[in-house]
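> agent: user asked for a holo structure of the chain below bound to zinc ion. Plan: (1) validate sequence alphabet, (2) canonicalize SMILES, (3) run complex prediction with ligand conditioning, (4) return tokens. Step 1... ok. Step 2... ok. Step 3 dispatched.
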Amino acid sequence: MRHRKLSIAVAAVTFVATLAGTVKAQELSPVEQEIAAHVEGHAAQAEALLEQIVNMNSGTMNHDGIRAVGSIVQQRFEGLGFATRWIDMPDSVNRAGHLFAERIGTRGRRVLLIGHLDTVFEPGDPFQELSREESTASGPGVVDMKGGVVAMVYALAALEAAGALDGATIRVALIGDEEFAGLPLELSRGDLVAAAQESDVALGFEGGETGRAVVARRGSSAWTLEVSGQQGHSSLIFGERFGSGAIFEAARILHRFHDEVRGPEYLTFNPGIILGGTDVSYNATDNRGTSFGKTNVIAQRVVVDGGLRFISEEQKEAAREQMRAIVADHLPGTSAEVFFKDKYPAMPPTEGNQALLALLDQVSRELGQGPVEAFDPAERGAADISFVAPYVDGLDGLGPFGSGAHTPDEQLDLVSLPAVTKRAALMIYRLTQE
Ligand SMILES: [Zn+2]
């Protein structure tokens, strides 16, 4: 079953990667060798920058900390000839804002680099400092994703040193609230979307894994089911006057969701909480509520709050359509309504994304780092690159490798830092040469 579920999409990706593999490996050009050598030669400086910014707390709600990390990185981009700006969020969004940088040229594809400055570790967390043991660095955000931010800076530095940034169009979006996005998303992600609309390709620098990158991620959305029935004496349930009650109606709907909506690959939906009875109060912000009911009273209200993950807008819309139809097919004496809310869009495995993976695979082989294949989208949660997926070709997971993100065991393999920096630099180089 699990094997069958490996999708056509993933099969297609493997096929593209195999094709790329059969292309005779090219030698790196002299400029590309210079770029790779610059990255190697600056590995110690890259580690120093990593240590500096990991030791600065930038938990999502530590706005000053995020701005401080931002200003360190901002100086680096300025030094590489980028125009930079800090984008503040309105007070109501209650987030630090974002650092954007850009160099506008006329040549090649317009590239958008995506990362984030915040971490899940707030100032009160005991995990605050980078420590090293041989080639492993432990620290808050080393993988998620200050390591990726450093890779971005040194990839661009290598390109700058080789004169390869001249004429290229590169935008950088370093988000200040990736771990706990400010609402509404239209505001907290509006600038990211606008940058994507002026770009052709997006590269995400979140932590990666040896030999794998992200061409697709599922989107995530929310649904709420509200059911009402007629309160009455339980002895009269199923009768003409009172019908079946809200709880049976909710059970009917959920059962049919389970049996009929389930099926399409990568589609999942989960009712996370249910409250029912004669008196129900539910606070959607806290995902908490109370209910009261009696065994001899027909229930008059049910609330169900759930989530739904999907691989494409079409899949999401089809599922919603089916859910609406099931909801509308009420039991006697009941009514129900389902409400949907978008959160993260899907990043489907498009041909353009697969072509970027093929380019990464090629560059990786030419650097002697071996082949790169696609992650199974089912393993990947939603991320900021998802917001730009409708506008550009995208590839994520370009950051250095590690483990334990969001835990006090977060660790980074320091050997992977120059390795992924080289890959990224050569990808950007080739994309902006075309
Ligand atoms: Zn994270």
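> agent: step 4 complete. Summary for user: Residues 1-25 have pLDDT under 50 and may be disordered. The pocket of zinc ion is lined by residues 120, 144, 179, 405-406 (CB under 6 Å).
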